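Reply to dn_fold:

You asked what the input looked like. This is it:
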Amino acid sequence: MSAQQQVLIQESIMEGMQYMQAQELDMAEEAFSAALDQSEAHFGEAHHITRRCLEYSARCIMTMKNYELATPMFERLVEISENSDSENNKNENVEASMATVFMDLAECYRSCEGKEEDAARAASRGAKSFEVFKEKMEEEAKKPPPPEEDEDENEDEQNEEEKEDEEEDEEEEKEENKNAKWKL
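and this is what came back:
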């Protein structure tokens, strides 16, 4: 994918977010749909950027209270995320994202007649995803922090290296002076 195409996708996403903030939902949905189409064409449907575009688009449509249209989009998002490989999930906190997706899906189901059981299942899966996310965060918190480089230590090392270099230069200069005296 060219850098220019990636910039176009990012611009469409930003445009959609700006429209969402301004409550111009039709315009937001149009921008998110454009980003989704571009991302699917260039990255494929399982790529994390495509999934994010699908999530934005579905959430915008849900905000417009068009639950019948948003529901299959959230269901598709769940299916893609569950079937995608870990390579497509790198650098992304999938559990936290999926927790919110399941909660949004549960809201869509609750708003659709006859989907109460589906809503309960989606809410339960959202809670489980959140618990997995929470456990991972607790495990991360238990890990010791990476060692910080001490600036004073770095300065001391640098000063030592400079002193060694100066001493070597002085020794070389003395040696050159000694050799120069013998040549006279």
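Helices lie at 3-21, 25-43, 48-63, 67-83, 94-111, 116-142, 151-183.
Hope that clears it up.
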